[in-house]
Specification:
Length: 331
């Protein structure tokens, strides 16, 4: 996951302490003017390099190759990506500024007396510290963003992906568990308390991803808060096929009419994605709500419990994706 290995960002105080204590050590190893030069060189390098490393550790949000729209939107649900980008660019500015201060003062530490050199070196240090303090809030925001984003789910937006939606207890996780080998349950995120379920299966030697999103696609859009709505938008960039699962027996605890409304709203929101309606628990067909069955107009009836039509549904989902792997360029 692209935000997984970001290093911690130092605070401005930590960075200043580090730069000046290393500088003091470097100065002790030398004498006279050389000591002053070495101190300035060390302090400026540490500040400039550390700040540059903070920025380059992040992927470039401008390039879709670096940050897939799925992750961009998901990140934006959790942190303010514009603010983060602004903080990163100000950090880069500070890095360059430290280099400039070094270049401005280094000549003044040559061919002069030691007191003047020391005075200039101290001036340079004060300006370096000032630059770093100016980006205090930015460094804090970058570190907060790093902490908030590092636990995003391990989802590969490049893989053909089936997203499963539907009210709680209709059989989504049973289905995902049934068709995938190992199910990787992930931690909780600000947009779902239950953790996104991600599973994988192979179809004709192509790895497919199947994603269950409790807390997001299991209730009416009106009940989603802002973060959840944004996470749903992110899923629009992820889903290659949407399976809306319904339980016409309503044993899940939700009337079929409500489930139908959810299906319709998902179909409307995911208009560029094939949406299949799957009526689950056909083994309980005697309990199905006949009054809504025609309106439901399910594409498939299945039972995860008995296994009836489970493979058929999976095949249909894969067919609907119509995934063509990128072929190597052959001239
Ligand atoms: N009779 C019958 N029960 C089923 C079927 N599929 C799932 N169930 C049962 O329905 C209940 C809910 O299934 P889950 O897979 O946990 O449903 P879910 O939609 O993932 O629910 P959440 O995890 O709350 O979102 C469980 O007790 C399942 O055993 C089915 O085809 N027939």
């Amino acid at each position: 996951m692209i935000f997984e290995d970001l290093p911690t960002t130092p605070t401005s105080e930590e960075l200043i302490d580090k730069a000046f204590s290393r500088a003091a050590r470097a100065g002790k190893a030398k004498g006279g003017l050389e000591a002053q030069q070495s101190m300035l060189q060390t302090a400026a390098n540490i500040i400039s390099d550390n700040l540059e490393n903070v920025v380059t550790a992040w992927p470039d949000f401008d390039y879709e190759d670096d940050v897939h729209p799925f992750y961009y939107e998901l990140a934006d649900a959790i942190v303010d990506v514009d603010e983060l980008r602004q903080a990163l660019s100000e950090t880069m500015w500070a890095s360059r500024k430290a280099r400039e201060i070094h270049n401005e003062y280094q000549p003044r530490l040559r061919k002069t007396d030691i007191d003047t050199a020391r005075k200039h070196r101290k001036q340079a240090f004060a300006r370096l510290a000032d630059i770093v303090e100016q980006i205090d809030d930015e460094l804090l925001y970058i570190n907060k963003s790093r902490n908030d984003l590092r636990d995003l789910p391990e989802i590969n937006p490049e893989e053909p992906t089936i997203v499963v939606a539907g009210y709680p207890n209709v059989g989504k996780s049973s289905f995902v568990n049934d068709v995938t080998s190992a199910r990787g349950e992930t931690a909780s995120y600000p947009f779902t308390t239950k953790g996104i379920g991600v599973g994988h299966f192979e179809h004709e030697h192509i790895r497919h991803q199947i994603v269950d999103t409790p807390g997001l696609l299991d209730r009416p859009p009106a009940e989603r808060n802002e973060i959840e709505s944004q996470a749903v938008s992110a899923i629009e960039h992820l889903a290659d096929c949407m399976l809306v699962m319904v339980d016409p027996s309503a044993e899940c605890g939700y009337p079929l009419a409500s489930q139908l409304e959810l299906r319709d709203s998902i179909a409307a929101q995911f208009e560029t994605v094939p949406v299949l309606t799957i009526a689950n628990k056909v083994d309980r067909a005697e309990a199905w709500d006949d009054s809504q069955i025609d309106a439901l107009n399910a594409d498939y009836e299945m039972s995860v419990e008995t296994g009836e039509n489970v493979e058929t549904v999976l095949e249909a989902a894969v067919e609907a994706i119509d995934f063509e792997p990128e072929l190597p360029f052959d001239g």
